[in-house]
Amino acid sequence: MNTPDSALAARDGLPPDARRLAMLSVAIGVGMSALDTAIANTALPAIADQLHTTPAASVWIVNVYQLAMVATLLPFAALGEVIGYRRVCLFGIAMFTAASLACALAWSLPSLVIARLFQGIGGAAMMGVNTAMVRAIFPAKLHGHGFGLNSLVVAVGFAVGPTAASLILAVASWPWLFAINVPLGVVAVALGRRVLPHTHRASHKIDAPTAILNVFAFGLLILTFGDAAHQEGWHKLLPEVIATLIFFGLLLRRQAGHAAPMLPVDLFKRPLFTLSALTAVCTFAAQGLAFVSLPFYFETTLGRSPIETGFLMTPWAVLVAVMAPIAGRLSDRYPAGVLGGIGTALLSSGLVAMLMLPSNPSVLDIGWRMAWCGIGFGFFQAPNLKAIMGSAPPARAGGASGIVATARLIGQASGAALVAYCFTLSATRGTSYALILGAVFAGVACVASFSRLVVSNEL
């Protein structure tokens, strides 16, 4: 059913003024989530020191957030189809804001970890319906533009995160890293309540046992990736792998025959959707391989300081932010298969160029290669988002939106785990192995993207 409030009902997007305010509300929520991920990673040593805990224990500040997000993304996406994306989005922003306040007031590692758990749940609610919400805000002819703006916000959040963390820690203690979210979140909720559109609601209900199985399946999957990244032995990894497979098997069995399964296997029957999701996973895995391994190369091999390493990584993020809205506008006129194929080809060639750095590279040698990779990654993102959302029927926009965020997180997590494996093969050549794998993943993404030009989206 549709809401009777026609002023807020999005039939083909919102009027321009309401559209801008609605996008601002969504952008603040998504930006906070992206910024917080980068801030927490950068500030982890400072937080561990001030809480008087070990580096190994402090990793849970990051891990529990990722676990909560991935485990609950698809249930929130499915819930959005039933009760409306607007409600789930507003709940997510409010939960994230309240949890940010709890993080700022945390007095110990356990209290901070618990607050980060709820922050991850709030982030999952926002990200799970994020692209479905953007699809409802913008008219069909401007979907590419909307997804481009969305990609821009995420890229800027990740790009300014390390710098923001450094600036805040230079003048204040770590709780302020989280406290800055509170006023932003209040503004986002106030705007969202006023202008976010109501959307069509599905007639089916949420199956609680399916949601629980989904939480365990994806939670165990990310836990396994994390333990692999920290080089745990097979005595621990093997039981986790087996348990993950069991829960995924139970999940698929439980949702079999459902009209709108929580893990949207029905959408994967559409070739365009499957190829777009594969493109996303492989491209984010390539990004994860590069982003996790290159700091080791810059600091260990080249002897650069952490601050210098941050600046060397910056061209990638900046060019992603520059290219995202451009690629979004182009995707309204040109096929996503072509744009994504060009972008992933540029990314793959950029990673190969990083492998060919001279033994004592200058800042320019590194900078143009990182910028090249950023151009490729930025060129892929918005068109691929539009392809995933466009290949799903409107009634299944929630499931498609959940897959967008899930593909990103799984790609990044698998990339990080593979970096750990590369360094177990060779401490000195680990970065080179990771970049080779990254180039291969980007190459697979390129093939998958161009393959979309010759397939039909029909079931």
TrEMBL record:
Keyword Transmembrane helix: yes
Any one annotated GO CC term: membrane
PROSITE patterns: MFS (PS50850)
Protein keywords: Membrane, Transmembrane, Transmembrane helix
Localization terms from the record: Membrane
Residue ranges of domain Major facilitator superfamily (MFS) profile in the record: 22-459
Membrane-spanning intervals of the chain: 21-44, 56-76, 88-107, 113-137, 149-170, 176-196, 208-228, 234-252, 272-298, 310-327, 334-357, 409-427, 433-455
CDD domains: MFS_MMR_MDR_like
Topology of this chain in the membrane: Multi-pass membrane protein
Protein name (record): MFS transporter
